[in-house]
Write a structure and sequence with these properties.
Blueprint lengths: L1 E6 L3 H16 L2 E6 L14 E2 L2 H7 L3 E4 L11 E4 L20 E4 L2 H14 L3 E4 L6 H5 L5 H10 L5 E4 L14 H11 L2 E5 L6 H13 L3 E4 L5 H6 L2 E4 L4 H6 L5 E4 L9 E3 L5 H11 L3 H11 L7 H16 L9 H11 L15 E7 L6 H7 L5 E6 L6 H6 L4 E5 L5 H11 L4 E5 L3 E2 L2 H11 L8 E10 L2 E3 L8 E7 L3 E3 L9 E3 L3 E3 L4 E6 L2 H21 L6 H18 L6 H29 L1
Parallel strand pairs: 1-2, 1-4, 2-3, 4-5, 5-6, 6-7, 8-9, 8-11, 9-10, 11-12, 12-13, 14-15, 14-17, 15-16, 19-24, 19-25
Antiparallel strand pairs: 17-21, 18-25, 19-20, 19-21, 22-23
Helix pairs in contact: 1-12, 18-20, 19-20
Length: 607
């Protein structure tokens, strides 16, 4: 059986790892899918993984285990919902989005409700298995006892309190409990563990980190898996978070604030006050022990640590009976939503013989935020070469984590010189030359492979149109709508002109063409970063023009920047990009002004 472990958020790692263990034990093949935002923190990089849905199409899986709410309809395989929590009262937990063929439920409470929905929709099945994330309660329940004992001795106390609120802005208690947490820590001396969801508002992360710096026995936990903290804690403080049910299944008391469940079977406060008193009462009297027993029976009655095993076996047996679905039938609206989240399916994925190899080349300097993503993105190439100008921000260390990448460090003179040198290092004739802030989408990757391996390529060099990203949003106009550059070409047919030191020019001794699909360009990180780029490019352009003995005057300082702004903002429709358009067009004009300011400075030095 071939299985995809599908991760949209970091919480999926702890849910899917037990399933991965069973797959390994039974000898099945598996492939992790992780969204791009998870790449830096993915804990299993020694296993097969991808960030590409094209790879998922090519993998031809039999089953896809999904702890999230969405999965691409066009990926082959039984689409299996394994859930990301136990909070049945949360909006959307029982919403049928029609993405899944099979729901593997945690306990009778969930099974009954999904069976009712099955009768109505008639397009999925339900099997109760238990939840794999809780298998660890059986295997590791006593694993952290020694460490817990050491923590209690260090802080001279006998209790650990865990504060783990939801991130949801309308439900979270984080804005209201800072002082209450502080009072609890100071009054009782208990160790307070603070564990936030990955999506918590950074403002509250900062506030609670500040609190942990001020008070010794408040510890802010940044590890990704909350299981360790759940096992070590003696009581949980939360609000409307599914972690409440995970904790209750350890048979320990819970205090929540303004929980929205229809039936709250633990200590729930209607106001954000009295935390210390509630903690002490629950430790001394434990008034909700009977309710916890009911929750254990209804929500997750499995204590054997074999929920992941039941899931894998259930899927195998289901496929034996029903076969493997090729894709999930969805409404147009649902298909469009999936396409916007994961990209459109790649039509006719290239699976032919690779008759020509590709060398992918980058030149880099301080590309820490981009380097892992771009190297992951171009690993379809047969050779990857990075020429780095002695980066100081961690770029080098990250490159060295990719064993198939050839790293060369070389001083930077100018762009033409560095790119000409890098091009010489390629051992294959076909070269894909990218910047670190560029990405090849799946459809473009497929087109590249089809083009390079065609028996009759249409050209010796290919332009790529580029989609400019303003942070993580598309900039549709502002002059970028027609932006294109040579990115794929035959090494034997090209060279860089030596009279340009910035915005280098590729000379092609042969035919040129344009590929249909666009490259994605993440050039704009923030205002200051892009401003720095424009000023730098302008100054380097000034060096070129200084050699030509250009003399700037009023026209260059006033009219040229104004026309640059007017051209991009009005004539090239930057006005339709709203605030983004104003920012980009202004900074592009600033680059022109910086060019002539630097040119004037250079001429003054010469005189």
């Amino acid at each position: 059986m071939k299985v995809i472990l599908f991760c949209q958020n970091a919480y999926a790692f702890g849910i899917l790892a037990p399933i991965r263990d069973v797959l390994q034990e039974q000898g099945h093949d598996f492939l992790w899918y992780i969204s791009g935002k998870l790449l830096e923190n993915f804990p299993y990089k020694n296993e097969d993984y991808t960030v590409s849905t094209l790879d998922l199409q090519l993998y031809k899986s039999d089953a896809i285990f999904v702890p999230g709410n969405e999965v691409p309809y066009y990926i082959r395989g039984l689409k299996v919902q394994v859930f990301h929590g136990l909070a049945g009262e949360k909006k959307g937990h029982f919403r049928i989005r029609h993405y899944f063929d099979l729901y593997l439920t945690q306990g009778p409470y969930f099974t009954d409700k999904f069976n009712e929905l099955k009768k109505r929709h008639k397009n999925f099945d339900v099997i109760e298995t238990g939840w794999p994330k809780l298998d660890v309660y059986s295997t590791e329940k006593n694993r952290y006892d020694f460490e817990k004992k050491a923590i209690l001795q260090q802080y001279n106390t006998d209790k650990i309190v865990l504060y783990a609120p939801t991130f949801s802005p309308s439900l979270t208690s984080a804005p209201y409990l800072v002082q209450e947490i502080k009072n609890l820590a100071e009054t009782t001396g208990y160790v307070i563990l603070i564990k936030f969801h990955d999506l918590m508002d950074p403002k509250w992360i900062k506030a609670y980190k500040r609190l942990s710096n001020e008070i010794q026995n408040v510890l802010f936990k940044e590890d990704k898996n909350i299981i360790k903290s759940l096992i070590q804690a003696d009581i949980l403080v939360s609000d409307t978070s599914s972690v409440i049910y995970e904790f209750i299944l350890l048979n320990k008391p819970v205090i929540s604030f303004k929980n929205i469940a229809d039936k709250v079977l633990w200590d729930n406060s209607k106001s954000y006050t009295g935390l210390t008193e509630k903690v002490l009462d629950n430790f001394h009297f434990d008034p909700h022990a009977a309710e916890r027993a009911y929750i254990n029976m209804q929500f997750h009655p499995y204590q054997d640590g074999k929920s992941a095993l039941r899931m894998v076996n259930a899927v195998k047996e289901y496929i034996e009976i029903h076969g493997v679905p090729v894709e999930r039938k969805l409404s147009l609206a649902r298909r469009l939503k999936i396409n916007s989240m994961f990209g459109k399916p790649t039509k006719n994925p290239f699976v032919g013989e690779k008759t020509n190899k590709i060398s992918a080349i980058l030149i880099t300097y301080n590309e820490d935020i981009h380097i892992n993503a771009v190297l992951e993105n171009i690993k379809f190439a047969d050779e990857i070469i990075v020429v780095d100008s002695f980066s100081t921000d961690g770029t080098i260390e990250k490159i060295k984590e990719h064993p198939n990448v050839k790293l060369i460090q070389r001083p930077f003179l100018n762009y033409t010189d560095q790119k000409s040198y890098a091009l010489e290092q390629a051992t294959n004739d076909w070269v894909l030359f990218l910047d670190a802030d560029e990405r090849v989408p799946d459809r473009l990757r497929n087109e590249i492979l089809e083009t390079v391996n065609s028996s009759k390529p249409t050209a010796d060099a290919y332009y790529f149109y580029r989609t400019f990203m303003f942070k993580n949003k598309v900039l549709r106009f502002s002059g970028w709508q027609s932006d294109k550059n040579y990115r794929l070409f035959k090494k034997s047919k090209v060279h860089f002109t030596q009279d340009r030191i910035v915005h280098e020019t590729l000379v092609v001794n042969g035919e040129s063409d344009v590929l249909k699909n666009k490259l994605v360009h993440y050039s704009y990180k923030n205002y200051e970063d892009y401003k720095g780029k424009m000023i730098k490019y302008g100054q380097m352009k000034a060096i070129e023009e200084h050699k030509k003995d250009y003399a700037p005057n009023f026209y260059h300082f006033v009219f040229r920047p104004f026309y640059k702004f007017f051209n991009h903002y009005i004539l090239r429709f930057g006005i339709l990009d709203g605030k983004k358009g104003i920012i980009i067009c202004y900074l592009n004009a600033l680059g022109v002004y910086s060019r002539y300011k630097e040119l004037k400075r250079l001429r003054n030095l010469r005189e």
